[in-house]
Design a protein that fits this description.
The chain has about 525 residues and is α+β, with helices and mostly antiparallel strands. About 40% of the residues lie in helices and about 15% in strands. Strands 1-2-3-4-9-8-5-7-6 form a nine-stranded antiparallel beta sheet, sandwiched between helices. The protein has a two-stranded antiparallel sheet with strand order 10-13. The chain has a two-stranded antiparallel ribbon with strand order 11-12.
Amino acid sequence: MLSQEEFRNLYHSQFEPEMKKLERERFRPVLSGAVGALALLILFFNWSQNSFGFGLLLVIVAVASWYYAKLLYRDYRRSYKHKVVAQIVRLANPEYKFFYDHHVPLETFIKGGLFYEFPQDYTGDDYVSGTVEGISFEFSEIKTTRGIGQEEKDIFHGLFLRMTFDRHIDTAVYLFPDGSDMERGSRYWGKQLEDRGKRVRMTSDLFERKFSVFSPKEDQARALLSPDMIHTVLELQKLIDKPIQLSFIGRDVYCAIPYSGTIFEPELFDTGLTPGIVRDIYRHFMLVERIIGLLNIDPAPVKENDSTAIRPSETEPVMAPPVPVPEPEAIELTEEEPVAVPLPDTTLNLPLLAKQVNDFKDHVPSRDLISYLLALYPSIQNNKEEVLTQELLVTLLSESFSSEPMEMDPSWLSVSTIPERDKMYRRTKNAEDLDSYAKPENRGWGNLAFTEEVLKFQIAELYKMRGNQLENDMKQYGVASETGTPWYNFDPLSNMTSGIRQLIARNPESADIDWSVIGLIFQLGRVNA
């Protein structure tokens, strides 16, 4: 953490020159908006003296000025994110990844289990991920609401943080501050919290006054919430001075910190030319490191025949896309490893798949990724009526190195939105429907349609990057496409291998197989080095 004097010197040498340039950019949308307001004032105070044509002209000037002001503010905001926020992220840690127009995925937000109301509108920005003391993390600003119009209700607005620790509990433990919607729900809407378990009473009176603890397994909740952990959570609550919510699920810890206003956004009608604004953003990143450091308590030792103890995780922590993560050790395979374990046709043997794809390099011709995807797409179309098995999957992936590619549909070039499987959540009616996501036949968005959209999106992206990003000799270290999307792998083998690594990191042995797995492999392979 920089001292106040160090930060002041750094601000004047590094940030102030750029922020002076940004001040000039900030005045442009303000001036454009002022022109629009002036046109309306003239129209309002001289309504009876204006001809219809002149009045219409004033209305057009006002609307055009405000629309232009909106475009100018968008450009100013983008510059602010790149020149200020991104630089502060690098100041906090040069290894952190920052995407101002991304956010923590909805699926991750849902898995945290901290809110019983399902969001109908889910937005966010300023996605940051990295590693602190060996602990992987991701966070972003999130705003979720439900309802429409006057009945719209905020569910959560603030920072949502996920951390992956090298410890594991075989249950879930939820900590809700007294007075929160979830805590009140435990008293008035008990059915909403059935999957969170029952209230667990703790020995600390102060902790009981601050938090309500829920868990399906009371003994494991108490094993996790040791006196040291209770003291840590109380210190964390005091440090943040906001009603934080926490959940411990497997290796992951989720933390929701509410905020009433925007966190990393530039002010339009107030100068950003002060060290205090930069320092406040910097403190948020340091706060995340502080949270991780406080919660990184050594797990309780595993006792023989003690199913309630917290145990070290057997796999390396890996974060979700859209950012690169370290390669997990679980996927390092040798030819001697007995991976060919017979599994049902509806199950994907991930270690075996990794070996099968790795063996491609010995017998398939080299091919650029665009041609490969254009060959894979019609192969999928020709077999989409079949049930996808591991044998069929490997055949499709292998034959696409040599089969005839299709002509690209020019309409695909307009595809600019990253396909997200968690969009299916928006179609659910209630919380119980979320369980159906585990059933392949119910993944309406996540099966064949998801894979088709992933291939279209990546083909369009690669076409647009020809002659530009694809010519970058350092592209394997990551480039942003024309749409600002991160790319790390540009040939079929590295793309598939990276994607399968991420699947194995989440489930080291096997997973259900359906047509969405092809899209998921290439989706993960694109954004992970």
